[in-house]
Amino acid sequence: MKKLIVLVAAALALTAPIASFAMDHGSMNMDHGSMMKEGSLAHEEVVNGVKATFKVLSMKEHMKAMDMEMPKGMKETHHIMVTFKDAKTGKAITEGDVKVKVQGPDKAEQTKDLMGMQGHFGADFDLSKKGKYGVMCKFKVKDGQVRSSKFWYTVK
Length: 156
Fold this sequence. Notes:
Blueprint: H1 2-13, H2 17-22, H3 32-37, E1 40-47, E2 50-58, H4 59-65, E3 78-86, E4 92-93, E5 96-103, E6 109-117, E7 120-125, E8 131-141, E9 146-155
């Protein structure tokens, strides 16, 4: 457990853009699967045979649950994650390309590629302002078809 906490803290400390591109989550022994159990269900829908389930996790609450403090200088406040399943079989879809654009209440936009993380795709975003955020996702899974999903998420 201590090793996991140290790895999570180290991963969260690497928030510089260059570091995020250089990170190889596949080689890290982090339990991202447990993160899917946390957070609030933000949106769920079936898009052309693929069930997409989105959750939003407050990094502050997640760190508090692990009895840790937020790293200084970290601007990202929330982790947006999505899981994909075949709508007919329920089988998890863990490979693909996923991009999310978030438009804040102040109309500022953030666009990121979501990284595959042990059963889900995810990335950290700055949702520090209270209000309504538009979340737009485009994803392409094994069948090569580009799908999209969008929803509103409110930060109180």
